[in-house]
Amino acid sequence: MRLISWNVASLRARLPRVLELLEELEPDALALQETKCAADQLPREALASYGYRINDLSGGRWNGVAVLTRIEDAAPGDGDPALEASGTTVGGLPGEVDPAQARWVETTVGDLTVVSTYVVNGKALDHPDFQAKLQFFRAMAERVRALAAAGPVAVLGDMNVCPTDDDCWDPALFVGSTHTSEPERIALREVLAAGELVDAHIAHNGARDAAGNPAFTWWDYRGGSFHKNHGLRIDHALLDRRTAARIDTVWIARDYRKGEKPSDHVPLVLDLHPAT
Questions:
Q1: What span, in angstroms and rounded, lies between the C-alpha atoms of 275 and 273?
Q2: Where do the structural domains in the chain lie, given as residue ranges?
Q3: Tens-digit pLDDT profile for residues 226-270
Q4: Which CATH class is domain 2-272?
């Protein structure tokens, strides 16, 4: 089973790259963040032509999350855009500050609950959005506790936190700012603890990627950050322990940060062997 998480920074702008990924990497579930379109603007027909349905929580111009899943027995070009999602789809996170921001959606894939989430950025430590970010994590911990108690779960998404200094290209530059602050890191650890979840990348690769390099998932568009590898690891896959035991590989698809109209994030890819 292949799960992928990707903040696409606009699904419509990045649609050719998304279709490229569907064709090349053939995920069983693709969690997208920052779709940035209303529900009636989603490219359902184009996705269905590649054999995928989209289960979404859309917020219009900003934010938006979705999970793409396979249309059963559909070959590329044979998809029916009118097909509804299989399983159960739940949108919204109980307890978040502003549900209209469209930051959480759950879809069942077999017996696995797949979540796509886009955690509040926070902006600055003294900004009201920072408190909204911490509240989002508290709400996330409560929901994860319930989901993990009910069965296998994979929480995928842009969580806007570097869990440790190893996940930031230069921690000294981020002192006093978001993404590396201790309150955010504690909040993310509390999410993991609430569901007894595992950070899939760390579980499989340790602090570095399979080649021994810093495992970043985001690079600023400015200043040649990608080529200098001045990045952050802020996109995560959190799995219950039973699902984490199924990990074969966890890797970052760096080539999707290159080429035409790349997102500033790259896909995070998990390959799982079948459950026993």
A1: 7
A2: 2-272
A3: 999 999 999 999 999 999 999 999 999 999 999 999 999 999 999
A4: alpha beta
